[in-house]
């Protein structure tokens, strides 16, 4: 199956996709900062360069795009119908890298939260997500995952 846009247009569209400072990430950062939390951004000193690093709490937060990181069961994690083999490999590599980063961070005794993009689409969702993240930072839980319809915590990796 062929692409519905020409190669030049597709290239321009793909180059506009950000890896850092995305809208969901900025919304979460503003909300956390307003609550008094201070953090480092994309620290090169922490494996995987998490989106937010809270040294005081020995915690890191990744804000994952549902499409790129394959949020299971999320309607935003669709698969393009063109070049299916390319996308399958791309997504598998992303998920494998995320898993390796998580394992390394746990081995280094970091606490880890994953906030999915779908949990930050509306202002009330940002508030609810910030509430859960704030409570998690003050807890002893090792892991937190926040999606649009699911919030999971775990005491061990």
TrEMBL record:
Pfam families: Vsr (PF03852)
GO MF entry, a single one: hydrolase activity
Biological processes per GO annotation: mismatch repair
Domain of life: Bacteria
Enzyme Commission code: 3.1.-.-
SUPFAM superfamilies hit by this protein: Restriction endonuclease-like (SSF52980)
Keyword terms of this UniProt record: DNA damage, DNA repair, Endonuclease, Hydrolase, Nuclease
Biological role stated in the UniProt entry: May nick specific sequences that contain T:G mispairs resulting from m5C-deamination.
Protein name: Very short patch repair endonuclease
Species annotation: Pannonibacter tanglangensis
Encoding gene (name): vsr
């Amino acid at each position: 199956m062929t692409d519905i846009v020409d190669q030049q247009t597709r290239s321009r569209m793909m180059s506009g996709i950000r890896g850092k400072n995305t809208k969901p990430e900025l919304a979460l950062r503003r909300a956390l900062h307003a609550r008094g939390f201070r953090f480092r951004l994309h620290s090169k000193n922490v494996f995987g360069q998490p989106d937010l690093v809270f040294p005081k709490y020995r915690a890191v937060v990744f804000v994952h795009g549902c499409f790129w990181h394959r949020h299971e069961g999320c309607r935003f994690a669709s698969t393009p119908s063109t070049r299916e083999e390319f996308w399958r490999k791309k997504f598998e590599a992303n998920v494998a890298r995320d898993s390796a980063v998580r394992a390394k961070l746990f081995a280094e005794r970091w606490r880890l939260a994953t906030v999915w993009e779908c949990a930050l689409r509306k202002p009330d969702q940002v508030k609810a997500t910030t509430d859960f993240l704030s409570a998690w930072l003050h807890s002893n839980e090792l892991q937190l995952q926040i999606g649009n319809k699911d919030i999971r915590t775990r005491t061990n990796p």
